[in-house]
Amino acid sequence: MISSGYITYVREVKNKDKILQIQIKILKKDISNLQKELIKNQIDKLEKIYPHTFFREFRLYLKSHEIPFITKLPLKEYDGYIVMCFDPNNSVENYYEDGEGEKHKLTDEILDRQIYDGTSKKKETKPLLKIVE
């Protein structure tokens, strides 16, 4: 596997007819090895404390520690993602990424579509997140 320069935290959930994949990407150069370990420990705690809203709590944790990251939230009924970039030192960039990976400006039509934000109604028994480096 070729390293992309990112650490990617992925959660996959089966929808009616497809698998939805939520991602948080952190640029490797933006965090130290100590921060990586702290994030891994925090993930374990958040999965236990917040099994239904874990992904939202993980994003809040990263924001509170001013760690820049990119969130990709899948659309429920359409192909593509809403992409939100958080950087405490720069302006944020939000856009729509279609099924082919092309970036598009967010329009009202796209914003009206339902996204999957990682909130679950039932407690998951398997690990909620896999980490790809």
Which class of secondary structure composition applies to the elements?
A: alpha+beta
Proportion in β-strands? 25-35%
Number of H- or I-type helical stretches: 3
Q: Give the overall silhouette.
A: globular
Query: What about the largest sheet?
Result: 7 strands, antiparallel
Low-confidence stretches: none
- Average pLDDT, all residues: 84
Task: Describe the overall structure.
- The protein has one domain.
- Helices cover 24% and strands 30% of the residues.
- A 7-stranded antiparallel beta sheet has the order 6-5-4-3-2-1-7, covered by helices on one side.
- It is globular, with a radius of gyration of 15 Å.
- It has helices at 33-49, 54-64, 108-111, and strands spanning 6-14, 19-27, 69-74, 81-86, 93-97, 103-104, 130-132.
- The chain is α+β, with helices and mostly antiparallel strands.
Keywords:
single chain, 7 strands, 133 residues, seven-stranded antiparallel sheet, 3 helices, alpha+beta
Summarize the structure.
This protein has helices at residues 33-49, 54-64, 108-111; strands spanning 6-14, 19-27, 69-74, 81-86, 93-97, 103-104, 130-132. Helix 1 packs antiparallel against helix 2 (54-64). It is an alpha+beta fold.
List the helices and strands and how they pair.
Elements: E1 6-14, E2 19-27, H1 33-49, H2 54-64, E3 69-74, E4 81-86, E5 93-97, E6 103-104, H3 108-111, E7 130-132
Antiparallel strand pairs: 1-2, 1-7, 2-3, 3-4, 4-5, 5-6
Helix pairs in contact: 1-2
